[in-house]
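QA checklist item 7 of 12: single-chain prediction sanity check.
[x] sequence parsed
[x] length recorded as 661
[x] structure emitted
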Amino acid sequence: MVMLASLLVSAVPAAGAPDQTRAPITARDLTEVADIMGPSLSPDGERVVFRVSRPSVSANDTRLDWYVAEVGGGTPVHAGSAGAVRHDGAGSVAEQTPVWDPDSRGFRFLALAEGAVAIWHWRADTGLQREIVDPADIIDFGLSPDGRTLRYSTGATRAEVAAAEKDAYEEGVLVDDGVDLGQAVAGGKIEDGRRISQRWNRNWFDRARILWDAPKKETVVDLGGVGAAAAPEVPVPARAGQDRTIILEDGGTASIDANDGARHLTVTRADGSQIQCRAAVCRSPKLAAIAVRPGHDMLILFESEAGAREKIWLWRIGDRAARFLTTTDGAERTPIWQPRCAIARAALICAEAAPIAPPRLVRIAFSDGRRQTIADPNADLRARIEAVAIPMRWTNGHDGVLLRPAKAKGPLPLVIQYYRCAGFLKGGVGDEIPMLPLVENGIAVLCINARQPAEGAPMEAGYELALKAIDEAIEDLAARQHIDRAKVGIGGLSFGSSVALWAIRKSKRFAAATISSGQVGAHYYWSNALPGRGFEETFRQFWQAGDPDTDPERWHILSPAADAKVIDTPLLMQAPESEVRNLVELNTKLRLAGKPAELFAFADEIHIKYQPVHKRAVYERNLDWYRYWMKGDVDPDPAKRAQYVRWHRLRAGQSLQAPVR
């Protein structure tokens, strides 16, 4: 057994005094948590624009709004709607960086509204207006430095896209390497209230709307000085943002280089002279990014911690030491997400969250690290949270977060998610495990950050590494009387779902499991391996396997359906329509073997479910599943009677061939 190495911080209840009359945190509360997309600083450094997304179960939609705030403080101004929500290829809300006017009095952005993706323009004096609309949806745009010229790109026109979708429905779809047979062939995604057709866009499992690969057209618009008439007299130094290599205000560069796992930060002045950073953080293997502090010969250093936490340091170029400023959470860095902090002269403006603290926008002063809240769209929810979050680190190198009721007594049942523990832990990766409602019902939750196996190791080495870490965590927490080792559940999405399935294939210690994604199987392989897509080569590289016919030994290891007869853990599968077919073999074999399993499919959903009504349903059913199999709890809601009749039969091993009325 690997003992707990340390508690990183004390377990501190969420903000707000305990209230005996407070409403418990529900699945709907989690579904409707507002998120804040990365803030963007104006050229003069005085204002910041940020976008808030608010899902609504009643509307089954997500509202997007822009806000503008003064960096120095004050109430944010609502700049208007950001249009209908659009999603990236996996299902997350797509991000967008607005483009500021040179005079810092307005900004532009793309929005899907009134049936078109167009360029919208907000000005402090005139408000929000649709500025440029084209017969085709606008893909992206850029503004000249003086603000007088705008260039935008388009693809197929909306009429051409509509005709292609109509033709696909009426004439049938040629099944080629661009067609995802997991989706409805003539429309498998809802956008702006309409079902649209998507195709693979040659980026592994990413999707784009039909005709995404049509030739691109560039259009240049003379704005006649709009947004540039009041350009600042004193040029504002260019900012290179946050990256591993950035441009300094004097024209030089700063760069992080890796050598044998260590980092080296080098500043190259405009005259070619170099300065090596000797501070300890500059050699940290976790140094993730650097940025310029405007108006100072100083760099801001971002050092990764567990999950999405980052330590922020200030280093005056040439000094032998860096000054620690603060730690911020919710700063997970990916190629498709904006940095969560904008950098002003006197402060950072950060969209941050923590395991039991939903997203908010804060100002972090460079002088002393003191925080000032700029916007808190989740203030009501924040005040109701009474869980405690215990950051944990084990001697095997894994780390994570344990969520427990504030007044827990004795060993508790436990649900585990192994993948990533970033920001507010409302549902883990994909947001499907109802973490806080589980805690409200006396069930602890452990989120463990994944670690990668040695380079070149087979896929199952990552699963084995996960299972070993999970076993050690269970034994450690049980020895400390935190959890009941006989009442442990596990669940997840994507890689997390594969880990959960591997765990119940190889271990009998789990009392319940839930997964949210399709799995490797014959249907998965053959529906994706059409010539031209490059799937076979990528699959062989990723899973170290050929096709099911020529490599049956590897497929017996990789496919969970091969172990259906030995899986005894009650398994609830709630899959998007685009992936449910990849679970049919597993589900059928489990049912034929008399195992306790259920499979639900959600229409018009892709990898990460994006419809609020589906999110709420998944959260609630997962909550009921864990409560039933680990505690014997039954929700008295009459609407759930049929659910519990089925589950009672599963527990008794009875046939479910006759439908429950």
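[x] summary fact logged: The chain has a mean pLDDT of 90.
[ ] second reviewer sign-off
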